[in-house]
Amino acid sequence: MNEKNQLGINSCFLNLDDPIKLFEIWMEKAKQTEPNDPNAVALATSSKNNVPSVRMVLLKDFNRDGFVFYTNLNSRKGNELKENPNASMCFHWKSLLRQVRITGNVTLVSDDVADEYYSSRAYESRIGAWASNQSQELKNRDELINSIKEYKNKYSDETKVPRPKHWSGWNLNPQNIEFWLDGENRIHERLLYTKSHNGLWNKSLLSP
Question: Annotated catalytic residue: which of 76, 141, 186, 190?
């Protein structure tokens, strides 16, 4: 059993004032134990009419300014984020029996940041960003395959595939970050960080 400090906080929480640093430590641990995609995260968005939707995406970067993922801006999630910038993430690392939940609002990353990440992707992935009208209905699978072929012909030089203007990254600026540890008999342990108006983080324990 993990040791706890005098406040009853599990040692896995490390008694840190900075949740981004704690997330970094937990993510590094997940990279060692998760068999696939430790950066996979459930992303929840909502339309302007408050209809929610959720899907898995891959976290590509994080720092004190937020958590970054990339997508087609005309996809369902892209359109919903343009209509309603509030979003939520949930990481679940089954190998560690840990979760991290993040809520906040999103803004687009800069063109320079998006260009740099896009250029690091495999050729097939860069072509796919052009060929797929993400979330739009297909007449059949051949429609997509033919679109891929067309863009491969158009951008046959693998070193010269420009980033589509409709493809970029979103940065989720966190307002709340909750760290969750599995407990016996479902008596889980939850530590919530809430950002104050001055940008500092306040900690509180939550009942499971």
Answer: 186
